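Why this split exists: single-chain examples teach little about how molecules sit against one another. For that reason, every record in the complexes split bundles all components of an assembly together and asks for one structure covering all of them. Below is a record exactly as it appears in the raw files.
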Amino acid sequence: AQSVTQLGSHVSVSEGALVLLRCNYSSSVPPYLFWYVQYPNQGLQLLLKYTSAATLVKGINGFEAEFKKSETSFHLTKPSAHMSDAAEYFCAVSDQREYGNKLVFGAGTILRVKS
Amino acid sequence: NAGVTQTPKFQVLKTGQSMTLQCAQDMNHEYMSWYRQDPGMGLRLIHYSVGAGITDQGEVPNGYNVSRSTTEDFPLRLLSAAPSQTSVYFCASSLERGYDEQFFGPGTRLTVL
């Protein structure tokens, strides 16, 4: 069975600092990988996804993530944090071998941005 | 284009009561799913559907029922509410391939007393 581990339930950075949110997955074959963001009292929206094309994926709002098969990781980064980035971030995987679009989510990381 | 809509936004139930959470999408997506979100646990899949008339269980299906009579609608029924079902419920829809983006509704916050 697939699983996702997000290291750090809370991350705090200063405005303008680097954002790094960690995600490791467990899967017998390389999965599809996603990062979703949830702003307070809202649903989730897609930041970016990896679908076995380029290993460095660029998403919305200046975020990017790199797929590293050897490390089974898909960490999310942004060079310079903005106050509007404060939200909860979820890493998720789906199995390439299965029909349908079932996502397995990590526990989430709450990002706080200090002024 | 309203996307994915959910009703109600908030609901309080007593233990043993039943209710239906409504979900509708206007994007002609074949795949729809229900998740529950609990603090520190991320989102967990309850039930999903790959098309009208086809549903299947996810990770945490006990106490919930679904049906899919149309492409647009995918209601979630709580048969006999329990305090353990206090959660935020999200409906999502997408095309059916594993790499397709899922579009989420705004959620229903349910409290069971």
